[in-house]
Amino acid sequence: MKGDYQDLVDEISALVGAPATLENRDFRLVAFGAHDGDGESGELTVDPVRTRSILTRQSTAAVRAWFEAFGIARATGPVRIPAAPDAGVLRGRICLPVRYRGIVQGYVWLLDPEPGSGAGPGPAALASAMEVAERIGVLLAQEARAGADLSREFRAALTAGRGWERDMAESALRTALGPDGDGLHAVVCLTPWAGEAPGSVPGAAAVCVAPCPGSPGAGPGQGLALLVRLRSADVLTPAETVAARLLPRDAAPVTARPPAPPVAATATVPAPAGGKVTAGIAEPGRGPAGLADAWQQAWAAARAATARPGLGPVARWSAIGPYRMLAALATAPLDDPATRTLLDPSHRELARTAEMFLDCAGQAGRAAAALGIHRQTLYYRLGRVEQLTGLDLDEGEDRLLLHMALKTARLV
Q1: Does the predicted model carry a pTM greater than 0.70?
Q2: How many CA atoms lie within 13 A of 261 on its CB side?
Q3: Is 232 strand, coil or helix?
Q4: In terms of Cα–Cα distance, which of 118, 200, 216 is closest to 208?
Q5: Which end of the chain is more exposed for a tag (fewer CB within 10 A), N or C?
Q6: DSSP letters along 124-179, please?
Q7: Best-predicted range by mean pLDDT among 107-116, 131-140, 213-222, 242-251?
Q8: Residue 226: which H helix or E strand, with range?
Q9: Which runs of consecutive H residues, i.e. helices, occur in 182-290?
Q10: Element (H, E) at 22
Q11: How big is the CA angle at 253 (ends 46 and 266), to the nearest 5 degrees?
């Protein structure tokens, strides 16, 4: 299929008389045409953005945001984008959106000649190039659907019990993934997830809806699972990009000529309703072995992003600290006899006070200031907490139990 992309890109290059570059929806390079010297001395006139795209096979977030701000994800025809030297875009671009059934699948990029030069492709050449772009859209959509078609094998690898059942599920997924079956990847979880999995998710090798650990597998107890291929275990950007595109987000305003590159890209794939959705990314791994454990990590990271918004909305397992251990306790509603009464909704303010006091390492002044209450009020509330729980907040183990219970309750 890669050869097909290259042939089609070369066809566009011949139609418009200029080298073309094809990137998928995540701005990852798919194919590019040869660049001949076209300056006065025969030197290449590609700018740093195109050079980086070819060498690293991806664009920076700032460059991507600059281009997306011109509405290319919604455009149905060629879009001219001016140069932006501050963003490294020294040459203007003509963007040909690649769509399939109305959904953008990628972009073909042409370097735009200097305004007023009279050079560059005319309307007829661009119209012919757009017809080729439609054929590219079919191929990209087929490739994306291939990931969705692996949903049964992927789900089985995430949820199969230990032993021969899991071994068989992992083997089936490895076979279904083909040559990349033992490649580097990361598991991503978005939860809660209502309804079915999207028909296609650009950038994901496999997609399914699966029950979260400890859940019977319905409603809020399920999450969207994605298998995202990585080039390096140290760079989780592809997984973060896929997750961010699926999270609900207000679209950024689009103007005809933005004055400066925006700081964030516009989400283009809506997530279904069903509460606040957060995302988690597991530790990278190779091949299907261990996907069930990775699914638990991704779920824990997503739930930690809900419990502690500062971690998210896309949280990495490696960055959630104590929630890595607490997640193992949160597979069912907490029913500790000491903390059961305090965790009742009727005592929400007392629980909040106790949690802040413990978060502040038992420093009453800091806790009172953070809560916006007088220190004597804090002491009164802590006394009520001790009455309700029977715990002594001067004792380290009692503090540990209460702190764990309060944090774990956020994950359930």
Answers
A1: no
A2: 18
A3: coil
A4: 200
A5: N
A6: HHHHHHHHHHHHHHHHHHHHHHHHHTTHHHHHHHHHPPTTHHHHHHHHHHHHHHGG
A7: 131-140
A8: strand 222-229
A9: 237-246
A10: strand 20-24
A11: 60
Q: How far, in Å, CA of 365 to CA of 372, rounded?
A: 10
Local structure of residue 327 (DSSP, 8 states):
G
Residue (of 349, 343, 368) closest to 357 by Cα position: 368
- Give whole-number Cα distances, 140 to 52, 106, 131, 132, in Å: 23, 8, 15, 13
**pLDDT tens readout for residues 308-332:** 888 878 999 999 888 888 877 666 5
Both tokens of residue 227? 């298998």
Paired with 308 in beta bridges are none
Q: Which residues contact 238 (CB under 8 A, 6 or more apart)?
A: 26, 28, 186, 203, 228, 229, 230, 231
Distance separating alpha carbons of residues 119 and 260, to the nearest angstrom: 27
Residue among 241, 204, 250 nearest 224 (CA): 204
Please list the residues that pair with 188 across neighbouring strands: 226, 281
| Among candidate residues 227, 15, 193, 199, the one with its CA nearest the CA of residue 105 | 199
**Residue found by looking up tokens 């009464």 in the block:** 341
Closest to 147 in 3D by CA, of 69, 200, 193, 94 = 200
- Between CA 58 and CA 410 the distance in angstroms is 37
Q: Judge whether 75 and 266 are in contact, CB under 8 Å.
A: no
* d(C-alpha 8, C-alpha 225), whole Å: 33
Length of the chain: 412
Q: What is the pLDDT of residues 40-62, one digit of tens each?
A: 444 445 555 555 554 444 566 67
Task: Kindly state the tokens that stand for 189.
Answer: 């979880």
Question: What is the C-alpha separation between 371 and 378, in angstroms, rounded?
Answer: 9
CB–CB of 259/219 below 8 Å?
A: no
Distance CA 156, CA 88 (A): 45
Query: Terminus-to-terminus CA distance in the chain, angstroms?
Result: 44
At 262, which amino acid appears? P
Q: How far apart are CA 100 and CA 235, in angstroms?
A: 30
